[in-house]
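ok, trying the design again with the full structure, not the truncated one.
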């Protein structure tokens, strides 16, 4: 785990990684998968809780559970179009000497079926609001610092998928096993 300490002689903050003997983690979630409006709208929504705690001394035993919610909605539109909206939220969480702030995001997409359903054009935008950032506070060994980490998370993707090959599959042939053949010979006697 990432740890911080302050050198008392120089007031320099030292950031390093340290192994701990053990940690406890408890996670649980429930997911709702539901078609709505005569299967024109489908939702997959997950609500969960997460709790983690280090078995450590020296001020790293802080723990606060987090609740998360993610929801994905797909809507079938006329003329082969589909729209998708996906959002997530994670509440603040404390683990060890780090206090994480809330996180949230929103993704959007639209697709169009073409070529009698064999192809699909799709346009997706991830992190529409550009809010995916890791914000946390260090609360350990006399160090108090606010940190923000922001990786590039907003992407626009245009894709085309095509299904090659036959659209139908022949049913498999029924094959007898050796046991069924032997049973048939025994029934003849």
């Amino acid at each position: 785990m990432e740890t911080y300490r302050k050198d008392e002689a120089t007031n320099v903050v030292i950031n390093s990684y340290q192994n701990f003997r053990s940690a406890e983690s408890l996670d649980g979630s429930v997911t709702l998968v539901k078609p709505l409006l005569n299967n024109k709208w489908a939702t997959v929504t997950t609500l969960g809780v997460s709790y983690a705690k280090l078995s450590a001394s020296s001020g790293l035993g802080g723990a606060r559970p987090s609740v998360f919610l993610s929801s994905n909605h797909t809507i079938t539109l006329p003329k082969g179009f589909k729209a998708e909206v996906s959002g997530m939220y994670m509440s603040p969480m404390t683990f060890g000497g780090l206090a994480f702030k809330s996180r949230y995001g929103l993704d959007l997409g639209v697709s169009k079926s073409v070529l009698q359903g064999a192809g699909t054009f799709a346009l997706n935008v991830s992190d529409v609001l550009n809010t995916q950032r890791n914000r946390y506070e260090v609360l350990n060994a006399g160090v108090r610092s606010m940190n923000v980490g922001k990786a590039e998370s907003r992407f626009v993707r245009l894709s085309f998928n095509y299904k090659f090959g036959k659209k139908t599959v022949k049913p498999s042939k029924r094959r007898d096993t050796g046991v069924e053949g032997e049973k048939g010979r025994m029934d003849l006697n």
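Keeping the full-length input from now on. Residues 178-188 form the longest helix (11 residues).
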